[in-house]
């Protein structure tokens, strides 16, 4: 269905066409002078310039046509040719009726569905999840839901960091500590123990030690590189040991992402494309895209008009091992093979050069046109000092500690409430509120900007926060039950907003599609956050101004219940896309 602004744009567009001008001049937007009218169209100025006409006269002619159109209750002119537009009661009533019936609840729908893969994991085996992974997970999961709502077939892939140098570093370090383990005995090639010799906690301890040792000592680095190359070449003991790393890490990751309410349909990793690399290298060579550089094989991707130097993409290192660039390129081979039409990478924006390299190489190979691969980069979550968030001791904050912290704050807030929750209920609600606080804070900032982590502000029940929206959703639901109705029943009542606060709520409800479309097209969930907040606020003004349960006129009461039900349903639809769970009470 059309949003209100689309419906108005269509009418104004026709009026421009009647003047022999392009309909696109009729684009209508929410007014920046709401005191004059809720909508405006400024197209007459540009159209008049193009047609060499007087803008005021053109706007007069457009207005004359709109005056006769039942979609408008008032059209006024301002300045050199601005049109101020007020939709009619009849138009609002009609569109609300459509909204009640719409199986997609007024959301934006694409004409054709695309098969999209979103890459928003990227945690590394042996390294615990930390706040850096949080943004990828929260934004990626939300974008996936936004895509699905728009009708795409969207799938999330965790794309584990389970290949490359880190793995060799771990193997080399364990070999130093426990050289007698069967995995290091070249005479043994099968029948390895099922039990892992290391736990996730061991890995978390071993990895930083190994990585620091390699940084300091070139000898240790050479060992790690050798181990990486042997692992990749298929040395059985190394592969078996590596399997354990992956298995124990995956188990921990499933638990962590589960706590966040973030899901991946695919649990693939860098290693899963290893066998695709050799044929890919052959293909690159055949297409004359591969060049030698200091013993390594690379693909040159720089272009003349680049503003800065884009280095070549490293495909095979001089010792035969492969790294980040090759696995990402081979993953595109895999994704294309699996029929994905679009690949979206939700990864820290500081990795943008890497994606430029990979996408250009993929396009040169003919895998995907460049516009089918997107790096939806995000900014960092900073501490109050404006630098990437760290613990008080200066370390990287683990996700589990972060969640515990937010949980605790949320519980404190809830204790200040009216005491209608039992202790057990409160713990569960605190979990939902804490997560909502964290997710909403992350999503409500434009994806590409950095933001400051401020737990007290995030869990506040007032202002543009997750807890405020959950609270609004719970309260709106209870308005219906207290009036003895249900959402389903109320969606069947005729909505006929008459009071200003009712009309404002109606106009918000009828602009959902615009917000959802913006969030979809720009890959920017914050546009949905803004809409949810405006909707909740419009509801609260409506609720303050209009009686519902004790309204005497049955017709008016039912209309208000219908508006309430529409708000409740729409808010739930949006919060679902943002990954916020609404508690039964709060
Ligand atoms: N594991 C990588 C890192 O820690 C992130 C992977 C992001 N996804 C991708 N397809 N490159 O930097």
TrEMBL record:
Its main location: cytoplasm. SMART domains: Arg_tRNA_synt_N, DALR_1. It comes from Parvularcula maris. Belongs to the class-I aminoacyl-tRNA synthetase family. It catalyses: tRNA(Arg) + L-arginine + ATP = L-arginyl-tRNA(Arg) + AMP + diphosphate. One of its GO terms (cellular component) is cytoplasm. One of its GO terms (molecular function) is arginine-tRNA ligase activity. Residues 469-586 form the DALR anticodon binding domain. It is found in: Cytoplasm. InterPro entries: aa-tRNA-synth_I_CS (IPR001412), Arg-tRNA-ligase (IPR001278), Arg-tRNA-synth_N (IPR005148), Arg-tRNA-synth_N_sf (IPR036695), ArgRS_core (IPR035684), DALR_anticod-bd (IPR008909), Rossmann-like_a/b/a_fold (IPR014729), tRNAsynth_Ia_anticodon-bd (IPR009080). Monomer. The keyword Protein biosynthesis applies. Its EC number is 6.1.1.19. Keywords: Aminoacyl-tRNA synthetase, ATP-binding, Cytoplasm, Ligase, Nucleotide-binding, Protein biosynthesis. Residues 2-87 form the Arginyl tRNA synthetase N-terminal domain. The gene is argS. It is an enzyme of class 6 (ligase). This is Arginine--tRNA ligase. A motif ('HIGH' region) lies at residues 123-133.
